[in-house]
Design goal:
Layout lengths: L1 H34 L12 H47 L1
Helix pairs in contact: 1-2
Amino acid sequence: MALTLDQLDRTRDLHGRIKQHLLRVECYIDTEIIQIAPREPVYIDERWHDRQALKRQLMLLDQERRRLALAEEEKLQGLHHRLLTLWSRYRQLLV
């Protein structure tokens, strides 16, 4: 049971660090987008393609964040299920 609790803690810690890293990258890209403010175009915005590429990166980060959240939830559900099973076995041994 202690091993399962330790796995839960390590999984939460790992996913927390990954989420924090994704947030840092997302903030960096948002800053880049803000710094590429459109100039007064005569006919065409020269930085449009740069902004679009950064926005695509943000969309990919969002997809990765959703995938990570789903993986974390599945892993935590499995660990919780195992913990409940161990707990019920432990209670049966006491009776």
